[in-house]
Amino acid sequence: MAADMAGLWPYVLLVLVGFLPNEIWRALGLVLARGLNEDSELVVWSRAVATAILAGVIAKLILFAPGALAAMPLGLRVAAAGCGFIAFLAAKRSLFVGVAVGEAVLLAGGFLFAH
Amino acid sequence: MVTPRDFNSSGAAFFGGVRSALTSVFFLVLAGTYIGIGALAHDFGLGSWSLALSTVLIWAGPAQVILVSALGTGGAPLDVAIAVSLSGMRLFPMVVALLPLLRDEGRRLRDLLFPTHFTSVSMWVESLRLLPAVPRERRLAFCNGLSFGYMCTATGFGFVGFYLAAGLPPLFAGGLLFLTPVSFLLSTARNARALVDKLALVFGIALAPLLVHFHVQLDLMWSGVVGGTLAYGIHRLREAAT
């Protein structure tokens, strides 16, 4: 999506690289909907792989952070994520509490570091 | 227990679905997630309308985050397509689990095309929770309404995040960007009930930075396949041992 890409190419890219590889799994579900149950080994394995990929994306976003987030020290980003996770567990797996604590730690740390 | 509901018409069922979407916890989850994705898109130089289009066409947060961040850092299209595809595998069993709830006499394949495309984690979790209480002939309209409500929420908050990122001072812009990894981490952790999913989460987090450090090609695909298979292998060993 760089500035030098002209015309329709970004949209072609969106369809080829984003839409199709993702939609194909939904289409397969529609076509093959008979006979597959939630506990089948294929489903468990594919869920594990999808989870691991997402985990990798998360790790990369925290460790090799983009833009304004890169200005915050690596240790702070990791610590904020860690605190958020602990708060999430402590609050009985509350998404809201975990995100709030993680953000608070990051912002507080970022503020202290800049001063 | 979800109380049974009835609707006078398909239109009423559709709007019932929209209302359910806007009053559910997933409204907040999607708002927060897509504010983060909007900020991410802004930071990686993607246009706000391109993001909106990707939300409608792809309708999967993880795939969109991979697309924006990997392409934005100059990843080869093939690598990105493979990573996007692998992240989307979860959609297959979700569609398979959802469609039987929508089956009815006279239901044609083309009626199921929209629900199939609309299937995403939020929509799927809520549909499985709410549809059983809706009369079968109204379920399709209700499900479409639910999906429409969620999709509008996500698309709208994508714009909000995008323009917030453009205007905020660096500290808060950083905080906004942090929203995506933190909310994804916690929602994935929350959905990881079984050991195999928890292991996959840990292995994925551990492997991806290693592969990046050693400049391995297709690092997301490998961390996914190796991490996921390892987690699955341990799961099978435990099953065999009991």
Record keyword descriptors for this entry.
heterodimer; A: 115 residues; mainly alpha; 5 helices; 0% strand; B: 242 residues; 12 helices
Characterization of the model:
The complex is a heterodimer of chains A (115) and B (242). Helix content of chain A is 75%, strand content 0%. With 115 residues, chain A is mainly alpha-helical. The longest helix of chain A is centred in the first third of the chain and has 23 residues, at 9-31. The model of chain A has no long low-confidence stretch (mean pLDDT 84). Chain B is mainly α and 242 residues long. The radius of gyration of chain B is 19 Å and the shape is globular. Classes of the chains: A mainly alpha (115), B mainly alpha (242).
Number of DSSP strand runs of chain B: 0
The quaternary structure here is: heterodimer
Overall pLDDT metric of chain B: 88
Helix content of chain B: over 70%
Rg of chain A, alpha carbons: 20 Å
Rough outline of chain B: globular
Q: What's the helical proportion of residues of chain A?
A: over 70%
Order of helices and strands of chain A: HHHHH
- Global outline of chain A: flat
Tally the helices of chain A: what do you get? 5
Average pLDDT of chain A? 84
Number of strands of chain A: 0
Largest sheet of chain A: none
Note the main sheet of chain B. Answer: none
Sequence of secondary-structure elements of chain B: HHHHHHHHHHHH
State the helix count of chain B.
Answer: 12
Question: Distance between the terminal alpha carbons of chain A, to the nearest Å?
Answer: 36 Å
In a nutshell, what does this entry contain?
Chain A has 115 residues and is mainly alpha-helical. Chain A is built from 5 helices and no strands. The relative contact order of chain A is 0.06.
Spell out the blueprint of helices and strands.
The complex is a heterodimer of chains A (115) and B (242).
Chain A: H1 9-31, H2 41-63, H3 67-70, H4 74-90, H5 95-113
Chain B: H1 10-22, H2 25-43, H3 48-58, H4 61-72, H5 77-87, H6 91-102, H7 113-118, H8 121-130, H9 136-167, H10 170-191, H11 195-213, H12 219-241
Helix pairs in contact in B: 1-9, 2-4, 2-9, 2-10, 3-9, 4-5, 5-12, 6-8, 8-9, 9-10, 11-12
